[in-house]
Every structure is written in C-alpha cells, then in structure tokens.
Task: inverse folding
C-alpha cells in the first residue's frame, strides 16, 4: 500500500496487489475492492475521515508486447509502478472506476440482499452447485 498526505492534510491511499500474470483481470480488481472496503472501515473506525482510496494491480509486463502496448500501454503503467512503489520491472494499473467494483462486492457478498446472503440462508438442497476442474 502506498500512502501520501496532501497539502491540506488529507490522506491518500493506493492499495495494490501484486499478481504473477501479464495482465490485470476483473477478478483481481474485485479482490482489491474488498481491501478498499476493509481499509475504509478501519480508517473510519479510527476516526480518520476524508481519505481518498484508490486501488491497483501490479503485474509483469508481457514478454512480447505488441507495438501498441510497447508505445501506448506499458510506459504509463511502468511510470505508475515507479512513482508509487519505486518498482522498475513491473506495471501498475490503477483502477479507473473503483466504484463499479465496490458495487459488485456489495451485490455479491456484503450487501443486505447479496448473493452470498441469499445462498447462505437457503436450504442446502436448494443451492445449485457445479464440480469442475477448478
């Protein structure tokens, strides 16, 4: 996690999770949305308000990037990893719309009508399941 204090005294946090992949995926962004909610709760419980929280994914650059990736995509992600964490050999994608993932966390797990709550309250025989290789 990266923390910085703005000139007006407000705290800014960037929560990042490092993945051993060459691209940030939806499930990675969803995972760090949980971290966002946890940090927000911890700070709120401590009386720290007005904090800006961003989320991001650290990942490896592709071994063989396309010309477009090499020119347009990789440089700003590499700069972000260096700026926030001083890392030179990884990329950092800061999530553009964290609220979308926070809504998904509420819909899936933490909300009063979440899928997890509905499944948890259902009779076991009413819960569909599927076995797969994963």
Result:
């Amino acid at each position: 996690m990266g923390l910085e204090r703005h000139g007006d005294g407000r705290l800014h946090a960037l929560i990042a999770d490092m993945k051993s992949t060459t691209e940030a995926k939806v499930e990675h962004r969803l995972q760090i949305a949980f971290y966002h909610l946890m940090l927000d709760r911890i700070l709120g419980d401590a009386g720290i308000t007005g904090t800006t929280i961003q989320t991001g994914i650290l990942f490896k650059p592709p071994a063989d990037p396309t010309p477009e990736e090499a020119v347009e995509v990789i440089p700003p992600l590499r700069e972000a990893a260096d700026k926030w964490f001083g890392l030179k050999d990884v990329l950092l994608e800061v999530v553009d719309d964290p609220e979308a993932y926070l809504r998904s966390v509420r819909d899936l797990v933490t909300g009063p009508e979440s899928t997890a709550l509905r499944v948890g309250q259902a009779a076991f025989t009413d819960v569909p399941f599927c076995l797969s290789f994963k």
Q: What stands out?
A: The longest strand covers residues 11-18. Residues 17 and 31 are 9 Å apart (CA to CA). The helical segments are 26-45, 67-85, 98-110, 115-121.
